[in-house]
Amino acid sequence: MYYTINPKVMSIKSNLEEFKSLSEKVTLVAVSKTKPKEDILEAYHAGQRVFGENKVQEMADKYDHLPKDIQWHMIGHLQRNKVKYIAPFVNLIHSIDSERLLAEVNKQALKNDRKIPVLLQVHIAEEETKFGWDDTELLNFFGANLFENYKGITFSGVMGMATFTENEAHIKREFGHLRSIFETINTRYGSLLPEFNQISMGMSGDFKIAIEEGSTMIRVGSAIFGERNYHKS
Ligand SMILES: *Cc1c(COP(=O)(O)O)cnc(C)c1O
Q: How many CB atoms lie within 10 A of CB 17?
């Protein structure tokens, strides 16, 4: 597999300028998956420090070769047997979609003598294919105080992906739903979870709606780095 750089991208730096007016309450995660290290460095030199990747090996390789003050966020589906490769350095895992995965991250965090911040990925979209907890599972998890079993985990909030649709009202409803689950957990258990304060929602196509609905973290790839081209060779 190889990647080509889309000639339509004028400049990563100028694309990032568009996000300079974001409220301080919203963190921009620059999603650099499939993009070469040169692109990440261009964004880095423009001041960007938080980058999102969805493949363990790619993220570990980029971590090895790029400046050490970059904060690496894992945003893609994570297999349990690969957690160990990112556990020493990952800054936030957005995609905790099951308790089994959570248990493995906890184990690897303790091995590395650290706490790993995570977001619980909630299934908010209609599509069957998207991963995540449903509302009941999530409320049961917190309701039973199960989070207290995870000494290697910092529970930092929730993440969700809306249905891929042009229907803005529909997207808005799904993001509103995620915010309301977040608020329910925060109201009931916030005093026990002081760092539970992030709602990761919104991508290139829907981040404006997400921010209107209370997003604190947007994950933006193509609007910064241009379209991703995948060529199978
Ligand atoms: C790829 C990806 C993004 C970024 O998508 P864009 O549409 O390019 O902004 C955000 N979140 C997740 C989970 C992704 O896999």
A: 10
Q: Nearest residue CA, atom 15 of ligand 1?
A: 76
Residues 77, 34 contacting (CB under 8 angstroms): no
CATH number for the region 7-225 comes to 3.20.20.10
Q: Which residues line ligand 1 (CB under 6 A)?
A: 31, 33, 54, 75-76, 161, 203-205, 219-223
Contact 147, 183 (CB under 8 A): no
pLDDT tens-digit profile, the chain (233 residues): 445 555 455 799 999 999 998 999 999 999 999 999 999 999 999 999 999 999 999 999 999 999 999 999 999 999 999 999 999 999 999 999 999 999 999 999 999 999 999 999 999 998 776 689 999 999 999 999 989 999 999 999 999 999 999 999 999 999 999 999 999 999 999 999 999 999 999 999 999 999 999 999 999 999 999 988 765 43
CA of 207, closest atom in ligand 1: 9
Q: Exposed, middle or buried, 26 (CB in 10 Å: 0-12/13-18/19+)?
A: middle
Q: Whose CA is nearest to atom 11 of ligand 1?
A: 219
Indicate the domain borders of the chain: 7-225
